[in-house]
Amino acid sequence: MTPQDGRRPIKRSTVSDQQRRRELALVRQAQQRSDSQNRARRLASSVLALHSSPEPALPDDAIEPERAPEVDWAQTEADLTESEAPVRDLNVAQASKLRGREARRWFAHQLMLPEWMIDVPPHLDRDWYVFARPAGSRCFVVSSNGTTISRLRNGSVLHYFPSSLPNGSRTRDMSGPASSYCILDCIFHEPNQTYYVIDMVCWRGYSLYDCTAEFRFFWLNSKLAESGACNPTSTYHRYTFSVVPIYDCDQAGLHAAYTSVVPYVKDGLLFYNKHAHYQTGNTPLALVWKDNYCSEYFLDTDSKGLVPTQQQAFAYSRKPVGFDPSFVDCHQVTKFAEAISLSVYHVVLEIQDDGRLTTSDDPPVVFGCVEADFIQKSGLRAGNLLRFAVRDESVSLVDGKLEIGDLQFVSKANRARAFADSYSKVRKKIDLISP
Amino acid sequence: MAMEITQVLLSAQSPDGHTRTLAEANLKQFQEQNLPLFLLSLSVELSSEQKPPESRRLAGIILKNSLDAKDAVRKEELTQRWVSVDPSVKSQIKESLLRTLGSSVSDARQTSSQVIAKVASIEVPRREWQELIGLLLNNMTQPDAPAPLKQSTLEALGYVCEEVSPQDLEQDQVNAILTAVVQGMNQTEHSSEVRLAAVKALYNALDFAQTNFENEVERNFIMKVVCETTVSKESEIRQAAIECLVSIASTYYEYLEPYMQTLFGLTANAVRGDEEPVALQAIEFWSSICDEEIQIQEEFGEDNGESSSPHSNFIKQALPTLVPLMLETLLKQEEDQDQEDGVWNLSMAGGTCLGLIARTVGDAVVPLVMPFVENNITKGDWRSREAATFAFGSILEGPSIEKLARLVHSGLEFLLNAMKDQNSHVKDTTAWTLGRIFEFLHSAAGEYPILTATNLPHIMSVLLESIRDAPNVAEKVCGAIYFLAQGFEDAGSSSSMLTPYLGDVVSALLSTADRTDPSNVRLRSSAYETLNEIVRCGSIPETSNMVAHLLHEIMNRLSKTLELHIASSEDREKQGDLQALLCGVLQVILQKLSNSNETKPIILQSADQMMILFLQVFACRSSTVHEEAMLAIGALAYATGPEFAKYMQEFYKYLEMGLQNFEEYQVCSISVGVVGDICRALDDKVLPYCDGIMSQLLKDLSSPMLHRSVKPPIFSCFGDIALAIGEHFEKYVPYVIPMLQGAAELCSHLDVNDDDMQEYGNQLRRGIFEAYSGILQGFKGPKAALMVPCASPLLSFIEAVVRDKSRDEEVTKAAVAVLGDLADTLGPNTKILFKDCTFHMELLGECFRSDNDQLKETATWTQGMIQRVLVS
């Protein structure tokens, strides 16, 4: 006899393993679907922030990186205050746990990338910091789960190492929760195998994305040393970390950043707007300046291996030899120099048949020389008047006589100019500026 | 004019195959050429008294099958054909049918009453054939109506009530039916055949009697007649009358109070003294009352009994007499009852009812049952020992764990020893009881641990020994091990208590699966299923070695099934069943090992071999794919990731076959899920297969044959594909978006009063949202503009869903996520849309208030995305 209407005998096994397996498979699939969609959401939003809307369909989203010169500063800062704080909190907390390909995809888009300084922002002295950029690779350093990983701009792993950063090695007795993690924006400096921390994105699980640069730098300077990350290396701390001296962008600060001796090879100057939040991708609220004085690496390439056009403006050689004058945007250089009140001045010299550069004195004083090759290429003729930038530091007095170690070609002189500067005029200019 | 078809109908029943086939072909041809004439001819045949009963009967059956089919699509087709038949032909047919109810041939009468109900099922909901009920009732009220006419008329009324739903009949029609039926039950006036037909008709008509039950006078009358009928002379009528009581117990629980005393008396007598079929119905009455009260407790909460809930505590009130009544039945076992799964007799029905009573009243049942247990469990007669054990096992779910744990502690040793009882029934029930103890009381993390370091060795040695006992006992032992392992899940460190035994347990289960006892089919699947639970509940890395060994053993066994000699379809089926079990174990192992980075390499080492085996399993069948192998492949794809690409070429044809399997919708559904697994594993490497997959999925969606439960997952699967292949999904957009919009439209038309439909609606909504999410995220970037036209309709749909109170949390989560995706992907294009609507604020607010962290997280993200759009 069989029971009526699906009454289940109590002794009959309740287990339907097949149904259970189906259900568990569905649960697994649903979880994985949700995971991959969430991943897509995180990755995708960072991509958007990076590209800042290249697609014509979305014309007015954010700022285009290439557009540069005429940035509406007030507008940009207003945008910053409307940032998507929660998105980044979510992103970062999860990002610190990402591994493998996912991590590469994520970190490839997370660095805040400076634009080239081709225009001088207003209130530079009041609203900006400046520091000398250490030469090396920009990277994110993430410490979590007892290990530290540094990732280059393309997301690939540079080092995988133990460190004294919070949760950065397995041995350290951890002062925070196991889930705590740090994300630092660094430059790895090969010569001394040091990570120079130039920005702090997360510290002990606390996200600094939505903090101003002012606060981030303060936090960076006070917290990093505390953690022991700046200590010499050991088995559990393979690379040492260091901060860089950061200056207010007034004249003294600029001067210091530009000229002072640091324990690393400089690669240009970085300018950070004090009020700016950490923004992924290119932003006009961080700027980079490179010239041949403060950078050995004044040529950089973009992801396609091409030299960015803005950067080409600065690709002039230490000596005006073999240099293509068409690259020079003298106006920008001058404007920058003036704006940052660097000790740069111009002299006008006359080019001679043999390439020597002379004053208008009789006999002329020789300050330098260009190669015949350069004269030919640039279509210069003997007797042309050329403007050169001279930096304070390259000027010296030898036996009471002025010598200029480094002349930077700027442009042909104004047509109205009839003569080159005289020696005394050069002396005078230098005296005015030099202390 | 009707055609003469008697000879064809008789030939169609000829013992000669050739004649039969020819006749069937003739009938089919006739049906296809001229359906109205065909139907008319059949009805004439059925109604003609001078025709042979055999041809009349077959005519009736063919007529019935021309109006109804099990398959919903076919049924709808037949309905439409009937509807389009000329009205005059239809009325001739109906007239013949009604006339046949008075036939002297009982076969013809019976068939006719069934055909009448089928016609009614088509016409009554369309407000046609409204005179039917009147005509039938006429048969009942005519003073000189012969008994056979009354009997078949009552049958027709019963069938009609079974076929149509309550809203299709007017209340006066219902009243008339009930009156006719109740009169038909009158003992003094009618023959037993008429009365039986009347009781059965009443059973079907009870669903229509809501209004009548609300009226005290009518209710009293109905109850009185039913109660009187439960003591009729004829046992068949008594049984049918108690079946009516069972139906009343579940449909009209809230009106039963005044009758309970009487009903207890009637049912108790039936349980104690009546024939088994009647007694079983009487027990069923109490089981149904338990069902109702359990359901009320679940809905209203147990403490709410006094005020608002309709709980009448019938079980609690009847407890002192009800429990002894059920305990008595436990002693009425049948010999050999354990040889058959799901055997149903007095003892089993009584134990089942006792289990329900325990779930209804909890602790109160314990003191009423324990004296019976204690008095009988040591008696010499096996029935007493078995009944005592069965009683104890039955009440392990319901009472508090605290109360039961004490009893179990003092009785466990006894039970373990009873596994050596000389009687197999006692051992069977004891093993089952141990299983129940582990199922309901054992939890390593619980407050009252049942298993301790002290008693575990004895338990394990008894189980490992008893698993070699008779197949029915061994099967129960497998169940006990299953729940024992389950109780150690989530146990953290204490799971190591079981670990030392796992090696022995696994080999015992493997040998059990190999047993060759005659009735080993169920035992074998129990053994493998228990193995699965051991794998699932084991803690990694503690058990990873054991699982790795098991993986190789199972692969070995699976490869042996390929060498089995297959001589018949039965052999093929056996092979398939065994492969199903083995693929099931592999699936569980795959899922377990892929959960941790430490154990994943174990899978990767064997992935190639495993995949080859699965493909060979597929190759064992020509037209269908093996569901379990498909399920396992999904888990394998997840574990291997992009590496799975190398298997795709070989695997693809089976995947396609699975997606085409409309009939076995579970297979289709699993194949759809596997597509998702593959998309996530392969990412854009799935692209070459997408045309094939997409066209199959679109076909599935459009097919009315495919079980509807597969359709929501197909939408979700679109999302998986879009996410994997990104902008390459563009070419499918013209097909997919209209499908999504059609489904969204459908959602607003689903019957909200139907729980099943409500749940289906939620699945559908979630599927639609997940599809949009995947497409939006996949199109992010240059192709985003493609989705701009969808934004506004999608937003309206989200709003409609948000406003719908029946949505569940999963739908809410999918809704809030797709809202963010819309803002994220389309950016400033959606600014105006978001500015113009406010519902998203409410939705976000609701999500933030939820205690589901995932939901909150998603809502936070969405809020960020919308804010970004609004300030852009």
TrEMBL record, chain A:
Keyword Nucleus in record: yes
Domain Snurportin-1 m3G cap-binding residue range list: 110-286
Main location: cytoplasm
Pfam families the record matches: SPN1_m3Gcap_bd
PANTHER family for this protein: SNURPORTIN-1 (PTHR13403:SF6), SNURPORTIN1 RNUT1 PROTEIN RNA, U TRANSPORTER 1 (PTHR13403)
InterPro entries, A to Z: Snurportin-1 (IPR017336), Snurportin1_C (IPR047857)
A Gene Ontology molecular function term of the record: RNA binding
Protein name stated in the entry: Snurportin-1
Single biological process term from Gene Ontology: snRNA import into nucleus
Keyword Lipid biosynthesis applies: no
One annotated Gene Ontology cellular component of this protein: nucleus
Coiled-coil ranges per UniProt: none
Family: Belongs to the snurportin family.
Alphabetical UniProt keywords: Cytoplasm, Nucleus, RNA-binding, Transport
Locations listed in the record: Cytoplasm; Nucleus
Functional note: Functions as an U snRNP-specific nuclear import adapter. Involved in the trimethylguanosine (m3G)-cap-dependent nuclear import of U snRNPs. Binds specifically to the terminal m3G-cap U snRNAs.
Ranges for region Disordered: 1-63
TrEMBL record, chain B:
GO biological process, one term: protein import into nucleus
Subcellular location: Cytoplasm; Nucleus
GO molecular function: small GTPase binding
Subcellular location, principal: cytoplasm
Keywords, sorted A to Z: Cytoplasm, Nucleus, Protein transport, Repeat, Transport
UniProt entry tagged with the keyword Protein transport: yes
Family as reported in the entry's similarity comment: Belongs to the importin beta family. Importin beta-1 subfamily.
Listed name of the protein: Importin subunit
Organism annotation: Musa troglodytarum (fe'i banana)
